[in-house]
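Researcher: I'm preparing a figure for a lab meeting and need a structural model of a single chain. I don't have an experimental structure, so a prediction will have to do for now. The sequence is pasted below. Please return the structure as C-alpha cells so I can convert it later.
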Amino acid sequence: MLTEYINEALKSAFYDKLEDSSFCAKIPCCPGTIAFGETLYECEQELRSVLEGWLIVKIRHGDQLPLIGNININKGIPCFEEVAVSG
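Model: Understood. Here is the structure written out cell by cell.
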C-alpha cells in the first residue's frame, strides 16, 4: 500500500526546467517535498527519495498524511504516543 501511495503522489508532481537546464520538482499535496536534478530522470529519482524521507518523518511524529487519490494510509499507522518507551 505504501508503494501505491508513493507512486500516486509522484503522479501529482510538478516539474520545471530551470535556466541552467536542470530540473526542479515538487509535490503540492506533500508540503516541503522538493527535489533537483541535472536530468529529468535524476530529478524524479531524487523526488522519490525526498518523498520517502518526508513520509518517515511524518509517520514518526504521528502527523496526519494527506489522502492521495483514493489511498488513505493513515488507518494503518500506529499511534506512537500510546507506546511506552523504556529507557
